[in-house]
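TA notes, week 10

Several of you asked for a full example with nothing omitted. So below is the full record: structure tokens for the whole chain, then the designed sequence directly under it. When grading your own attempts, check the secondary structure regions first.
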């Protein structure tokens, strides 16, 4: 009779964490950062059908890096949770903190289960407040822990390099154009110190805009509006952007 192969619980968890981190690192990075009128999501994504950013509820957005099929399942579950809670209680009872707790429980259970592999995903859940002080950004790694972020956060790919750059360059009160350009500059940085060019057509950009008159604050920025924001400085660009793309997000 052969002796069962023994692996200590600490080693097993370390191996699972390393597996998940490597899977996440293979994906493209994305950035979520605060600007004067809300929160902007920026990522390199050549696909126009498979989104990294999505609306969860009125004031809540979702961003994810890693395996698409895994974070898409989590996104759908989050939408169902938000719709049910808003219908059962009140729309104001649906919060980013509550949604982050639900995601943390799900990811933590999967990560600690010996019967299935850990999810190769890293999530960001953001909620725009009435003022910048009311904004909330939560990062959820593969193990289900919750990190309360302020100002900016990067996940996937070269997240550590990008986060260090954002910590140095990000400031409060940036316009949408300034925040978008900073995010693109951070995403274009390579580990060897060089920078590459990311064309506008390869960018996926969305915002939670607190100035929108609609209850739903999420909208995507595409086409000519995105090109103008990347090319032109000044408050006039942001004023123009607030009048475009006001239709509901199509998911």
């Amino acid at each position: 009779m052969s002796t069962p192969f023994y692996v200590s619980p600490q080693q097993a968890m370390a191996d699972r964490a390393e597996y998940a981190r490597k899977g996440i690192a293979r994906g493209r990075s994305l950035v979520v950062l605060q600007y004067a009128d809300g929160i902007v999501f920026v990522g390199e994504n050549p696909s126009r059908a498979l989104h990294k950013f999505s609306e969860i509820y009125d004031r809540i957005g979702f961003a994810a890096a890693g395996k698409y099929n895994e974070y898409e399942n989590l996104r759908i579950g989050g939408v169902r949770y938000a719709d049910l809670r808003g219908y059962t209680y009140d729309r104001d009872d649906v919060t980013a903190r509550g949604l982050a707790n639900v995601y943390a429980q799900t990811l933590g259970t999967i990560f600690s289960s010996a019967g299935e592999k850990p999810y190769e995903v890293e999530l960001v859940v953001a909620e725009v407040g009435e003022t910048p002080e009311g904004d909330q950004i939560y990062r959820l790694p593969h193990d289900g822990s919750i990190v309360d972020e302020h100002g900016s956060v990067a996940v996937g790919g070269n997240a550590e390099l990008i986060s260090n750059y954002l910590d140095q360059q990000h400031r409060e009160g940036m316009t949408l154009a300034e925040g978008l350009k900073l995010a693109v500059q951070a995403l274009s940085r390579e580990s060897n110190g060089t920078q590459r060019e990311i064309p506008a057509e390869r960018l996926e950009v969305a915002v939670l805009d607190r100035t929108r008159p609609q209850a739903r604050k999420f909208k995507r920025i595409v086409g000519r509006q995105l090109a103008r924001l990347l090319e032109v400085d000044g408050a006039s660009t942001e004023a123009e952007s607030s009048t475009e793309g006001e239709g509901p997000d199509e998911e």
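Confidence is low (pLDDT under 50) at residues 234-251. Use that as a sanity check on your answer.
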